[in-house]
Amino acid sequence: xxxxxxxxLVDAYALIFRGYYAFIKNPRINSKGxxxxxxxxxxxxxxxxxxxxxxxxxxxxxxxxxxxDRNALFEDYKANRxxxxxxxKIAVPYIESILNAMHIPIVVKEGYEADDIIGxxxxxxxxxxxxxxxxxxxxxxxxxxxxxxxxYRPVFGGGYETWGIPEVQKKFEVQTPDQVIDFLGMMxxxxxxxxxLPGVGEKxxxxxxxxxxxxxxxxxxxxxxxxxxxxxxxxxxxxxxxSKQLARIILDVPVKFDEENFKFxxxxxxxxxxxxxxxxxxxxxENFRKTFELQTTKTNEESLSxxxxxxxxxxxxxxxxxLFDQNTNQSNKKTPFYQYIDSELGFEIFMKYLFKQTxxxxxxxxxxxxxxxxxxxxxxxxxEKDKGYYLAIPSDETKKxxxxxxxxxxxxxxxxEKIGDQLKNESKILNHYGIRLKNNLFDTQLAHYLINxxxxxxxxxxxxxxxxxxxxxxxxxFGKGKNQIAAEQLPTKKLCxxxxxxxDLIFQLKEYFDKELVAAKTDQLFHKTETNLLEVxxxxxxxxxxxDTGFLKSLAIDLDKDxxxxxxxxxxxxxEEFNIASPKQLGVILFEKLQLVDKPKKxxxxxxxxxxxxxxxxxxxxxxxxxxxxxxxxxxxxxTYVDALPSQINIKTNRIHTEYTQTVxxxxxxxxxxxxxxxxxxxxxxxxxxxxxxxxxxxDYVLLAADYSQIELRIIAALxxxxxxxxxFKEGQDIHAATAANIFNVQLNEITRExxxxxxxxxxxxxxGVSAFGLSNQTNLKRSExxxxxxxxxxxxxxxxxxxxxxTAFARENGYVETVLGRRRYLKDINSRNAxxxxxxxxxxxxxxxxxxxxxxxxxxxxxxxxILKSQKLKxxxxxxxxxxxxxxxxxxxxxxxxxxxxxxxxxxxxxxxPLDVEIGIGNNWLEAH
Length: 930
Description:
Taq DNA Polymerase, Chain T, domain 4, seven-stranded mixed β-sheet, six-stranded mixed β-sheet, 37 helices, globular
């Protein structure tokens, strides 16, 4: 076999689907909003095969139009298959273009599957003395294996395994590979909807093959079977024979193996580069080049000649710097040069080079894991690819203070760009040591959030996606669970290698993201808004807010009483005691015992659904439902806030310190965690009471809350240029009453409460694409009345309707929409053929610019207000941001001045054709202020 020529036949769709689903949790979406997961996954697999095997002959085989013969035999063949994902449909033309540029033949025949094409070509090649390798994970191909035909299967976790006759015999427990057809005919194939013999699974099929040799052998000897199995097999003989026929790969497809056409040749690199650049596969270009070019391995002498830029005087003594080899998962990546600095002389030389740089990536090693009470044991630095320097922090307090005083000017420098990921946390950590991280910052997570907001932004994902490098996992360094160890316990080499690899990768990502931000025209949004806000949020988180634990204790007692009373009512109404918190037990009570509906909705697991939307729809049918909803509401309120908030008070500061994240919500809104203060319910009386627990720092202060009034409606009025709405806002009218007057054709002073309420629902519903069905559920209107109201609304505000249509059209053409500051929301499903999926993207096309613009505006206001508070050295502090509201610890002597500053900056943060209006409240707690 070594002298035989080798042919590799690739099952295109098998590898395309495999590549797509490999990225399903973290889809690769480029700056144009194109989901490139399937293309990238397929190309990674193809290049991997080429690198590993250097095939003599290669072709890629596609399905086209399904299998005409099998569909004629069995109408339901593959009928259970889900519709092909949109991303794969989009991917195929790109893949075909790439294959053409690579001069790899594409073999496709209308009415035949890739299995049949590969089977036919394999047998033709075998007759010509070729060894053929079928590149596919599909087990059906095992039936084709022979002395010269092999399966080349990608395996989970990477790599490939080759199946010859011995492997097929072992896997399927057959004597010859063609018995795999009998095996599949007996047990069927759910993926292809091949029925098989009822009651025959994998184990039984293998037993029958061993006993009877074939499906026909089984059917001729059913007298040897017993009981129900005998009955099933005899009753379904025709089904079994049909299944075998469906499972058999066709070997006479009208295609021809032309040796010359299948010969593997050099690609058109310029075309490949052009396609990859369009797809934004910059790292894949390098991978491609390395695949097709001979790589020269550097000798040890060459490696040694590559001296580090920091060189020690030999008189400094040994151990001043230590060179550590970095093990990577890429054999063709050169070994990085990483240094360890733990001496005074080494530190002096390091500092000399540090302040010569224009951009430096850094990462602190905080062994405490607490950003409010950190313990830095080292700092990793990188300012050149594949080079890094680890600065050890001395344990001696005097030396530690001297070191931080020396390095402080770097972190506060105007001229040196500081690069990192999660710089907000770094800022809080450094603050503990009297260092303020400021001026000229670049956070890679923040940058990528603007480039691709729907994707995850952690370093591992970004590194694999953009640098084609999988970094060392933190669990591999520190361990997991009980076996996890502290940073101080790690060997120095291991600690340095891990953190220097991270800074090295962050530094490389920065160079890439710089260009992407400019290309997407979001560089100004990044530098002027998001990066400046990072510093503001850091200070807010450090400040924290005071909590009245005594009030929460008394509220807990009241809630316990109400929850107990509700339990009693629910048990009485149901006629028995049960676990109200158990969806399973509750479902039985509501839908079997009380029989509230004829056909109750069920979950995937088969139990009755008791989700909130289900119960809300049933609330009018029985008092028990209202009581259950209230029970859930109070129980959640108590566990999530009343009981939990006191436990989240920081021991050192005695305050609550929520953490804000800029990179979660695709619209640009901030998210709040530990605790989440943005989800405190304010629509219920009990929910609002939670805000009463938040109080000023001491008696010299009050809480001041500043809230944008109806900012989203003002933004949509301005963006749509709807004159009637703009006029109402300019005249200071109640916008919901004004809307009601217009759509119900009555005078403002004649508007009923119900009319205003319905108008309010429509006003806000339009932003979220409310339908007649949705509006009828939110109001007392019938569906026909709701439709008529929406139609009248659009007739009243025609420019609003035009705006919505223009936004959707823009999204369809460009794949994204944007806010007033140019923040993009990519909508990869805007042209989907699936109406439900497409509808969600169309709603986002309208909603995202509105919500995102509101987020942009309050961020600008926060930055400007923080600058003024600092420049005027006010005692008052900004504490919280919750949706469209800011909360301050206001010193009583500064209330008037502070109120004017806040109102002016919030109302003038961004100029729209509609005036922004801010309501300010003051109180001894957040509830009073709000």
